[in-house]
Amino acid sequence: LNALRVFRYAFIVGRQEFGGFWSWYTWLGGWLPRIVAQAVFFALLGELLDQPDRLRFLAIGNAILTGCVTTFLTVPASTWDRGDGTYPLLVASPSSLMPAIMGRTYVWPLNGVVTSCVALAMVAAIFELDLVWPGTLLVVPLVLLTITSVYAFALFLGAVITRLPRARNIVYNLGAILLMAFCGVSVPVAFWPAWVEVMAHILPLTHGLEAIRLLLDQAGAVEILQWACLEVLVGAAWLAASLLLIDRMANAGRQDGSIEFVT
Amino acid sequence: VQMGLFVASELITRERNGQTLELVVATRAPFFLVLMSRILVPSALGLLGFVESWLIARIAFDVNVEIHHPWVFAATLLLTTLASTGTALITAALFCFSRSARTLQASIAFPLFLVAGVLVPVTFLPDWVEPLSRVIFAYWSAELLRAAMQPGEPADVLLKLAAIGVLGVAAGAVGAFLVHRMLQHLKREGSLGLV
């Protein structure tokens, strides 16, 4: 219950912070055109190659990716307490750091889910993708699952850079590029060498995106569920790793006196 | 281009946050020139991305991207860097009033690149987009860079280089005017050093 209360108050902070980034009109007038442009930008490669299948692959992959990259802002956001000077207070409090960090950053995956769904709807309309209604609506829980899994990975990276807060933007960019390049967004995972393929399967997004593609291609429910379950497993593993790491990193910082204010 | 836009968008905001804007404005150097030189450096550093991409294509994908017309290529990159600096000056002036310049800077790059036909030529976009593309310097830059990598003789090179230059200078002039107006506004409000 205490953890839930911490999460709730931290979420209020995160929500206010998000309001400093985006208002309704800047989200609709700035962010929305941006995510649609990003998805269309890459999907047009399919048009250039004159391959409708490729276009569909790129459009779906890049629409889902927009929300994942948004969610990945959790990585730098995990360290913002350092810049605010509130991190030592959080470390000193009896509660675990996890609900505080999760609460403050949870607004990013929420934005990610909305971003991916809106981007998918927009590219589907722009490229007249063949979708079956209302079955396609089941994509929403799959997007939620995929984004949650990406969020768990971002929390893990956020915990890792607790000791190196100045590396937050580099880690954010590298992590986002990993997802972009290797998780089956623009090219199938099988395109890559075997060792990259193995890496892709332990990253979030790979299985969730495959489940989304299968759903939109009207594959069997069992097959879709299999991929969705794999995404659950991957996400749970990254969440467990973050849970194990986050307080240990904070304690290590407390021991060597490195939880100071960092800009 | 993206590097210049990225840095420029939050340059003034960072000066204000650091309480150094008043000091910089108080110097005799024109403020827009100070801004332009600070934008030019990261824009030029962004050219390293070309080397990086070339190396990745060569090493990771075993694809040799041959530059058939190196002078066209070099002149285009040089002018593109200058034009992107001029364009970034506009964003520097416009975004300084935003509560979060970074969110706005994140919003402009992809629509700009899409409309300019950077990845896929604008012929793949609706017809009404093309007139819009022609007033973006990146459209001409992309055309020339593609032509520099084709074996055939590139057409209208000077005209296209001139288009990049003119659009860059025009954007720089608009940017300088906006920076001037922005400073006037901040001085009038007495909020140069307030955030």
Can you tag this structure with a few keywords?
heterodimer; A: 263 residues; mainly alpha; 0% strand; globular; B: mainly alpha; elongated
The poorly predicted ranges of chain A are: none
N-to-C series of helices and strands of chain B:
HHHHHHHHHH
Relative helix content of chain A:
over 70%
Mean pLDDT of chain B: 85
Shape assignment of chain B: elongated
Largest sheet of chain A: none
The greatest inter-chain interface is formed by: A-B, 17 and 18 residues
Extended strand count of chain B: 0
| Alpha-beta content class of chain A | mainly alpha
Oligomer: heterodimer
Q: Helical region count of chain A?
A: 13
* Overall helicity of chain B: over 70%
Whole-angstrom Rg of chain A? 19 Å
Strand content of chain B: under 5%
Description:
- The complex is a heterodimer of chains A (263) and B (195).
- Helix content of chain A is 76%, strand content 0%.
- The longest helix of chain A is centred in the last third of the chain and has 35 residues.
- With 195 residues, chain B is mainly alpha-helical.
- The radius of gyration of chain B is 18 Å and the shape is elongated.
- The mean pLDDT of chain B is 85.
- At the A-B interface, helix 2 of A face helix 7 of B.
Layout of SSEs?
The complex is a heterodimer of chains A (263) and B (195).
Chain A: H1 2-21, H2 24-48, H3 52-71, H4 74-77, H5 80-84, H6 87-92, H7 97-105, H8 107-126, H9 139-160, H10 168-182, H11 194-202, H12 206-216, H13 221-255
Helix pairs in contact in A: 1-7, 2-3, 2-8, 3-8, 3-9, 8-9, 9-12, 9-13, 12-13
Chain B: H1 2-9, H2 11-17, H3 21-26, H4 31-45, H5 48-59, H6 70-95, H7 101-116, H8 129-133, H9 137-148, H10 157-189
Helix pairs in contact in B: 1-4, 1-6, 1-7, 4-6, 6-9, 6-10, 7-9, 9-10
Would you summarize the structure shown here?
The complex is a heterodimer of chains A (263) and B (195). Chain A is mainly alpha-helical and 263 residues long.
